[in-house]
């Protein structure tokens, strides 16, 4: 069945880097874009941006430029989120989600989500 | 930035009751780009409604979405025990995605 499998929880020290993976199965990976969404403890959902799985072109939300990098390895149908120079406030669950998007007819929604990867930043 | 304001923050209801959740958008958006998600504790969100009113595959028909412009509503006609959860609206516009702050539906 269609699913996104994310890598396991990470515990990192401030200043370190982390790379979260999101492996797609059950569909053609390059057909749909992938969004990344952050959820800090006890908080709501925050869109980080998306990556075009056909071209590899990433787009970052305003608050997620600089230390955040989206990448792909299409040979293994996997999207990655790398965060560098980790801070305590990066502690959160990070979700990847498949994007269904069209302008004609118009629609936009995220129909398949990974289970989330918990990243904890603590000294 | 387009802001989505969900109300109420918490809705306390009993099983069998009707739930009405509101999502107000700071500027008019295309209803085709408005979606609703449900999230249970420790789980990922799941898509309920897209295009403001179309049920996703597997969404029970007690869930319905409506609205246009700046005002959107998610209605649960008769609450089942599994419906007590968090609900988020989400829009796509100007090449950006934004989520509302969420409404928690809790057992009274």
Oligomeric nature of the chains: heterodimer
Indicate the percent of residues in helices of chain A.
Answer: under 10%
Shape of chain A: globular
Please bin the fraction of helical residues of chain B: under 10%
| Strand residue content of chain A | over 45%
Taking all Cα atoms into account, the compactness measure Rg of chain A is 14 Å
The assigned structural class of chain B equals mainly beta
Beginning-to-end CA distance, first to last residue of chain B? 35 Å
Low-pLDDT regions of chain B: none
Order of helices and strands of chain A: EEEEEEEEEEE
**Regions with little confidence, pLDDT below 50 for 5+ residues of chain A:** none
Question: Largest sheet of chain B, if any?
Answer: 7 strands, mixed
Helical run tally of chain B: 0
Q: By helix and strand content of chain A, what is the structural category?
A: mainly beta
Approximately how much beta-strand content do the residues of chain B carry?
over 45%
What pair of chains forms the biggest interface? A-B, 24 and 26 residues
Q: How many helical elements of chain A? A: 0
Q: How would the global form of chain B be characterised?
A: globular
């Amino acid at each position: 069945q269609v699913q996104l499998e994310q890598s396991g929880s990470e515990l990192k020290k401030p200043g370190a880097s982390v790379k979260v993976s999101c492996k797609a199965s059950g569909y053609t990976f390059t057909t749909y874009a992938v969004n990344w969404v952050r959820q800090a403890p006890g908080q709501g959902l925050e869109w980080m941006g998306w990556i075009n799985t056909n071209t590899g072109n990433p787009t970052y939300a305003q608050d997620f430029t600089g230390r955040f990098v989206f990448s792909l390895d299409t040979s293994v149908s996997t999207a990655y989120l790398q965060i560098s120079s980790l801070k305590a406030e990066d502690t959160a669950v990070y979700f990847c989600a498949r994007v269904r998007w069209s302008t004609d007819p118009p629609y936009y929604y995220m129909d398949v989500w990974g289970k989330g990867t918990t990243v904890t930043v603590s000294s | 930035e387009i802001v989505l304001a969900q109300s109420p923050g918490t809705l306390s209801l009993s099983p069998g009751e009707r739930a009405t959740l509101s999502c107000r958008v700071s500027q008019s958006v295309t209803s085709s780009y408005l979606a609703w998600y449900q999230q249970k504790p420790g789980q990922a969100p799941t898509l309920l409604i897209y295009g403001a009113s179309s049920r996703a595959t597997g969404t029970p028909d007690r869930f319905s979405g409506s609205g246009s412009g700046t005002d959107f509503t998610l209605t649960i006609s008769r609450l089942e025990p599994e419906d007590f959860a968090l609900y988020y609206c989400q829009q796509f516009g100007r090449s950006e995605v934004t989520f509302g702050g969420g409404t928690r539906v809790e057992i009274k």
